[in-house]
Structure to design on (303 residues):
């Protein structure tokens, strides 16, 4: 998510509210067990429904439009190397809850933190296959990157101001000159000039699932759209160690400029997230610090 702008908070979402919504809109599922799902996500709340479904509701206004987009486009993405949610029910706003919401298929697995992955090289190859597959899906009618997906997939230059401001905020923790040099190099890379392609927009360990030591699923398509695929390369620095990042790079169907922009996206998003969440969200802060250390280590080895 883009935390450079604050958004309006929504109502308190608990089991009682979700049960009430199910009772009125999907009574055939209302008898099933309903259990909150723990997450460090800031945009949505999720509940497991029975054994094979989940209910997902926006908790802030900025995420409300993601519901209708996912309902429309998820079925059109086709077969991908990882399982993705299948929309099963489209809940509607009413006097109890102000936004539309969704019932999806449940994908079994745990957040794909490094301790859940047995072979990082295999994970790197799987992630590359996933991103390559996104680029083969027909994007002709897809939603162009913009406000609806918090500008993921747009030229990096549009993030210049917020990125440099975040660098300044974090100069007590990171080498400002090193960060600036990496960012300037990313900005200097040629922009994406081919036709826009599908992007997920937010691939990281919190939105990837693993089971039995292997990646198995990808969730949360709220920031999906069509644009420059470089933003999805962020996962190469947020999740993968340097050795496996080489496998990721060699398996990707992207050119050197896209790789450089991808590193710039990793740097920018991690900086902005850490500057915002440093004192309030330990999980996001830890992931952001890890990303920044990986970007710095990567460029140091290249030097």
């Amino acid at each position: 998510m883009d935390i450079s702008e604050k958004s309006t908070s929504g109502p308190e979402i608990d089991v009682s509210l979700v049960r009430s919504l199910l009772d009125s809109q999907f009574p055939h599922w209302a008898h099933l067990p309903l259990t909150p799902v723990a997450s460090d996500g800031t945009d949505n709340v999720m509940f497991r429904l029975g054994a094979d479904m989940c209910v997902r509701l926006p908790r802030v206004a900025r995420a409300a439009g993601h519901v209708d987009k996912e309902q429309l486009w998820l079925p059109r993405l086709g077969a991908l190397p990882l399982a993705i949610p299948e929309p099963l029910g489209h809940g509607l706003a009413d006097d109890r809850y102000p936004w539309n919401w969704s019932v999806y298929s449940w994908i079994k697995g745990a957040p794909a933190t490094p301790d859940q992955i047995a072979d990082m090289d295999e994970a790197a190859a799987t992630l590359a296959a996933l991103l390559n597959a996104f680029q083969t899906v027909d994007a002709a009618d897809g939603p162009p990157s913009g406000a609806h997906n918090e500008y993921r997939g747009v030229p990096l230059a549009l993030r210049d101001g917020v990125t440099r401001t975040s660098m300044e905020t974090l100069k007590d923790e990171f080498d400002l000159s090193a960060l600036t040099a990496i960012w300037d190099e990313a900005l200097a890379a040629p922009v994406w000039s081919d036709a826009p392609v599908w992007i997920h927009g937010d691939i990281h360990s919190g939105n990837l699932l693993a089971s039995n030591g292997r990646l198995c699923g990808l969730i949360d398509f709220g920031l999906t759209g069509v644009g420059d695929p470089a933003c999805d390369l962020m996962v190469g620095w947020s999740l993968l160690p340097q050795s496996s990042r080489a496998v990721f790079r060699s398996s990707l169907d992207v050119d050197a400029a896209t790789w450089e922009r991808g590193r710039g996206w990793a740097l920018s998003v991690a900086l902005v997230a850490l500057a915002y969440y440093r004192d309030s969200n330990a999980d996001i802060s830890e992931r952001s610090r890890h990303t920044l250390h990986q970007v710095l280590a990567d460029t140091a080895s290249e030097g």
